[in-house]
Amino acid sequence: MMFVYLCATLVSGSSWTARTYPKELVDIWTQRLGPVPDVNSEFTSLDSVTMDDNESNDVEFDARTRWPGFISDSRDPGLCSGLYSFAAASMATDRLAIHGVTTTVVSPQYLLSCGPKCRGCKSCTVTETVDNIKSIGFVSESCFPFVSEKARVPQCPANCQNGSKFTPFRPKRVYSQLTVKNDVYTNGPVVFILNIFPSFNRYSSGIYSPGSNETAMGTEPVLVVGWGTDGSNDYYIVKCFRGVLFGEGRGYARIRRLNSLWAGTGYGVEFEQ
Ligand SMILES: *[C@@H]1O[C@H](CO)[C@@H](O)[C@H](O)[C@H]1NC(C)=O
Ligand SMILES: *[C@@H]1O[C@H](CO)[C@@H](O)[C@H](O)[C@H]1NC(C)=O
Ligand SMILES: *[C@@H]1O[C@H](CO)[C@@H](O)[C@H](O)[C@H]1NC(C)=O
């Protein structure tokens, strides 16, 4: 898609720059958002998650430099709102590589088409996604490539596209009780749920935080891949599923460590090595 950005201006009083994305992209991002959790919703009632922790004292960490070549590119789900399957597949891709199991790219389509819970191109919950992973595991992109860019979801086939049987990678453990920095540092990227404020659709670079007068309009999953500080603002580095045009490059953003930005629950998967 041809794409020109007209301005990248510092938003006054903050530490990030804005740009104007094509309207059709912004519309798709907005349409794909999941609900903002209520207090007492499943997001907050799942196991607690500690955003800060006491062990990984590195001031800066970036999984992309810690494990070069093992952190997969952000992928664009197109019109498919099944971002939770994309986030799960991306985390599995990265962690299978980091832990020396395989460097194959994991298929989001398999979860979208074959997951017993929340099948299809819709915004699932963390619980539904975790249930899907536990019941069917993951297969490779070459076994079942992504075809739902237009939100049409094929039935779950009996086999891989070349006719061979599904031989899923089954995680030894899917866990939601984690200290984020420790987990990223030790095991690789983790899935987290970001509250999305209107200004995030204009985020270009820098350390993002919403304006004090903004209200969250939805949620979307991201992978936390690292963290850092610019002295006054601590941030997390996240891989977003908004296509490679978004953010600071290849779909990445830096998000200020404010509780209001996080909708609560994250989770990780662990593979047998
Ligand atoms: C970090 O916190 C955990 C849980 O509170 C505790 O068990 C552990 O000993 C602490 N580690 C260090 C290095 O302080
Ligand atoms: C079929 O595809 C799967 C998944 O990509 C692969 O592991 C397998 O080797 C392929 N089988 C044949 C016969 O090509
Ligand atoms: C929030 O405040 C900023 C200036 O502080 C203003 O430019 C913006 O339009 C306001 N946004 C909303 C949604 O009211």
UniProtKB/TrEMBL annotation:
The reply on keyword RNA-binding is no
> SUPFAM superfamilies, alphabetically?
Cysteine proteinases
**Domain of life of the source:** Eukaryota
Q: Which Gene3D superfamilies match?
A: Cysteine proteinases
GO BP field: proteolysis
Coiled-coil boundaries: none
SMART domains, from UniProt?
Pept_C1
- The name under which this protein is listed is Cathepsin B5 cysteine protease
In which organism is this protein found?
Answer: Blattamonas nauphoetae
Which keywords does UniProt give here?
Hydrolase, Protease, Signal
Single GO molecular function: peptidase activity
Task: Respond yes or no to whether keyword Phosphoprotein is given for this record.
Answer: no
The UniProt entry, under Pfam families, shows:
Peptidase_C1 (PF00112)
* Ranges for domain Peptidase C1A papain C-terminal: 57-269
Which N-terminal residues, if any, form the signal peptide?
1-17
